[in-house]
Structures are given as C-alpha cells and as structure tokens.
Amino acid sequence: MSxxxxxxxxxxxxxxxxxxxxxxxxxxxxxAGDASLDLTEAHRFPNRPVRLAEGLRWDALGLYAGxxxxxxxxGPVDSIGIDSWAVDYGLLDADGALLGNPVHYRDGxxxxxxxxxxERMPAAELYAATGLQYAPFNTLYQLVAARGTVPFTAARRxxxxxxxxxxxLTGRQGTELTNASTTQLxxxxxxxxxxxxxxxxxxxxSLFAPLRRPGDPAGTLLPHVRxxxxxxxxxxxxxxxxxxTASAVAAVPAxxxxxxxxxxxxxxxxxxxxxxxxxxxEASRAANFTNELGLDGTVRYLRNIMGLWLLQECxxxxxxxxxxxxxxxxxxxxxxxxxxxxxxxGFLAPGRMPRRVADACRATGQPVPSTxxxxxxxxxxxxxxxxxxxxxxxxxxADHPVDAVHVVxxxxxxxxxxxxxxxxxxxxxxxxxxxxxxxxNVLVQARAGGLVGDxxxxxxxxxxxxxxxxxxxxxxxxxxxAAACRITRR
Length: 490
Hints:
- The protein is an alpha+beta fold.
- The chain is built from 19 helices and 21 strands.
- The chain has helices spanning 60-74, 113-120, 123-130, 139-146, 150-154, 161-170, 177-180, 195-201, 223-229, 244-250, 282-286, 309-317, 323-331, 353-363, 372-398, 415-425, 436-448, 455-465, 477-485, and strands at 8-15, 19-28, 36-46, 50-52, 55-57, 79-83, 89-92, 157-160, 175-176, 186-187, 192-193, 211-212, 217-220, 236-238, 260-265, 269-275, 290-293, 299-305, 404-409, 429-431, 469-471.
- The strands form seven sheets. It has a seven-stranded mixed β-sheet, with helices on both faces. A four-stranded mixed β-sheet has the order 3-2-1-6, with helices on both faces.
- The longest helix has 27 residues, at 372-398.
- The protein is globular, with a radius of gyration of 22 Å.
- The N and C termini lie far apart (64 Å).
C-alpha cells in the first residue's frame, strides 16, 4: 500500500533573459523510492528586448501576457511562484501604474556611474557593507543613473521584475529577499536593508515594498486574472526564491553533507559556493565575488561569468544554425588552441560576437578562430577556464574546499561544456537538472504547502527523481594551466 501524499500541482513562472516559461510541477512525497517530482512545460514565449531611441528596454506587458497565457495553459494548480533574472525593475506612480518600459541591464545608461558612486562611498566600504561584486548594471548604479529623469521623479514604488508580475497578478506589493540582495542595498549579514549605504548615496528606501522571504504568501489571483486564465479561485501566489539563481541553487542535487561547488549555466554562468555567512574581505572584493542571499539564511558566494551568452550571440550572428552538429564539430577542434577571458565586460553588449572573440584572440597573440566550430570551441574552452578560476578562487577566499562541482541549468545539457569543465577543474562534475530554477521554484511552493521539509529534503527529492550525469576529469592539467596564463584582462 502506498504512503505517498496526494499529487499537488504548482505553476512555476520562470522568466529568462531570452524567453519565459510557465512550467507545471507535480509533487508527491513519501517513503524513499515512493516520491515523484516531474515538470511539464505548459507554455513558452519569447522575451525580446526592444531598442528604442532612449535605449534598450524590456517588453514588460508582453512578458505579462505570456505569463497569463501560460497560466491558462497550465490548468488547475495549487499555487503559483515567479522567478526571473535579477537587478532590473519597474517604476510605478501613485496609482500603481507602470511608468514606462523597464530598462534592460545591458543598456548603456550606467557607464561611468560607478565612479560617481565611489566618490561618495569608496568601493571597499560599499563592499564591506553589502558584499556585492562590482557589475555596471547593479540596481544601485541603475538608480543613480535614473536620478532626475521624469519617470524616476514621478515614481512612488519600485518593484523588481518578479515582484512586478506578482503585483499585476495579485494587486499586492512586496520585495523578495533573494532578489533584493542583488540590488547592492541589502546587508547580507542581517538580511535587511543597508540603510547607511542608502542614506549616504541619497537613495530613498521607501520606494521599495516591504521585504518578504521564500515561502511567504504573496496574495491570491485577482478576479479578472482568474477570468482570463480560467483558474477557479482562490489561487494563491507563493513567494519563492525569485532570483532564478536562488531557485536553481536550491535544486542542486547535493547529497547530505557533500562539499560542493555549483555552476548555474545559461545566458550567464554563476559559479561559486553555498555558505552560512558572507565573505566580506578585501581579497574577496578584489576577486569580484558576490554575496547574494539564498534559501534558509544561506549565502550564494559566487562570481558572474559571461556564460553561454557568448555562444548565443554567435549563433544569432550566424543565422541560428542547429547547435548539435556545431558542438560535434567543435569537439573535434584541437583543444585550448585559443582562449579568451569569459569574464571580460567587453563581451557584455550584444552584436558582432564572433568578430569580438576573434579580436580578443588576436590582441593576445593567439591563433584567430575563423570557422563557427573554431569559435565555438574557443568559447567553451574559455568558459571551462573561467569556471575553474571561479571554483578555485571561491575555495581559497572562503576557506571552503569542495569535492565535486554541480552544473545546473540549461548548460547541463551541453555535454562538451560539462566535460571540459570537469577537465579544467580537475573535479567530478555532476550535470543536472537542466530545469533547476523551475524545480527550486516548485519545491519552495511545495514546502509552503507542507509536502517537503528542509533544504536537504528538497535536494534529496531532486536527486532521487531527476536524471543526472557524472563527468570524471581527464586529460592534462598542465595544458589548462598554460592556457590560463594566456588570458590577460583588458
């Protein structure tokens, strides 16, 4: 006789930089081997930035329409959770109306802003207070850049992207903590606003809605939303780790007590460790590591790497060829022939990526890749090197050795990248789940509903139900050491 709980369904709204999805997760728990956790994609829709005269913008209304269509396709669910990329936001007026399209983090408006901020609060002090790495698009710099503009002057509320979608669904406003920790306005030691930072930089924290944490209720669907989606009410919206990396790390299938590093791969690679406390040393700042908050008081200590954005932009330039044969051809290209710094901010902007990769190789005196296969191999070798450097630096800076690397997210499907990462790191790589963000989203909802226990229980459920693949390191470590020496930052 089965002791498994009844199956419950949860809708994970997972918004990425190039597409959005609504995924239905069905969860039932019980004895070992008598649990289930499966995902079904209900709807996928594009997320295409729009370049206007004033700059690069997100199509927030298009995203919301995709979410509503996805919830309609999902059918009856017990709860809804929303995660997305970090740092970007929408501004609302006193009536709660959106003041223009949210600015895209790749927009150029923050150029030179950091230097102005550091005049008022030196970079070392800012890091000691917030633990956040320097990135030109951090919300803090976006807010300083926006100061004095008509929308910012008229704004009475600022909502990060997943909180904005939740507000449109429920009419209730909040600021989810894991995502708020990417604004550079949160103290990672207290999990509360860094009020001294905001005060010194003239940022009004009353713009932000009250903080809420994963598992907190975020409201129920408004009547007109239920009518549009066909969902019978009340349908709760549950706060999840609304930064997609927080949700993805929650779904890392690590064994109890395992010492692990993680790499969340997709448009970005986020490589690092899960810690109990932030690392706020000057050495950590110099290495550009960030301390973002995760589930249950954990800290995501990681470095941002440009990620598969490099390859995505090349594919776009080449007319979107089929990736599988290109990867097979790239596997046959001589290894480590040419490498670039995958963390170089010069790769941040879109456009002409094959030429920019070639130029970076030329500037360092390396053979210039000319064919798509050669460029692809250069990018994947370079990403593996960047993963290695991040994992090694994180262990040293946090004094936290690891025995394995978990690769989660879309890049877990890229066997060549996973194999190269194992070789570069000299550590076993466990690849999967590819849908880590959606799984973490679903599991937080399931935990709020009483189906799942602590973070370790969530990870056991992932490990016991999702397909994983293990890659053992092979090859010559010295070759990777020599390749790393060829990379110089611009």
